[in-house]
Amino acid sequence: MGAALGENLQREWDREPRAPDLWEALKLIEEDRPSGISKLTELSATGSALAMMYMGELLSREECESSNAVAERWLLKSAEAGSIEGRFQLATHYERMRAGQRAIEEHKKLAEDGYAPAMYLLGSIYYGGTLVDRDIHKAVKFFEQAKNAGHLPAMGYLSRIYRGEGFGWKGKFRAHWNCLTKIPAVIWFVTRYPHSDRLRGFSLPWSSG
């Protein structure tokens, strides 16, 4: 597994008591989808928070109303069982469903626990203004939190905001400073650890090889 996963997901795999069985189920899905889903369902039913997360994430991408309802239940169970990844995918599921306030609620829970990608996505939601009313000041607040927690794309967003959203000469200075300071770190992580949570936005690092 290792560098193919983000830091948090790797921790969850390291703590997963049935990790070999779960990995076999995920590989089986690629070869024999019905059998793989059956095995993943079995693992989820035994209480594996990580299996619940993968089950929910898989179903949430099927773009079917009944699948979406089941996906939400599994992701909620995963989150309630203590999975940061499960709650993150639950929030992402709500974003796909255009349920902006629910997505924000789940991301805020993760942000309160210090998970930087959730802070970054809160900033993105408020800056984009497609799921909720656009709020530049809330966007800056969460991007700053994400930056302080080590999230690199947040620095890029902050540069754009400080440069183009009426923050004056101080904003332009901050924009240039963010650009200069993020470049070496971005190059290092993109080339050596592209799945790091410090770069994470919407994607789920699925592979565990």
Question: What does this protein look like?
Answer:
With 209 residues, the protein is mostly helical. It has a single domain, classed as Serine Threonine Protein Phosphatase 5, Tetratricopeptide repeat (Alpha Horseshoe). It is 73% helix and 0% strand. It has eleven helices and no strands. Helix 7 (100-112) runs antiparallel to helix 8 and helix 9 (136-148) runs antiparallel to helix 10. Mean pLDDT is 88; it is low at 202-209.
Short note summarizing the structure:
The chain is an all-alpha fold and 209 residues long. Helices cover 73% and strands 0% of the residues. The chain is built from eleven helices and no strands.
Distance separating the two termini: 5 Å
Pairing-aware structural class of the strands and helices?
A: mainly alpha
Number of helices: 11
Extended strand count: 0
> Whole-number radius of gyration?
18 Å
- Tell me the name of the CATH homologous superfamily: Tetratricopeptide repeat domain
Question: Would you give the CATH topology?
Answer: Serine Threonine Protein Phosphatase 5, Tetratricopeptide repeat
Identify the overall geometry.
globular
- Biggest pleated sheet: none
H/E topology pattern? HHHHHHHHHHH
Mean pLDDT across all amino acids:
88
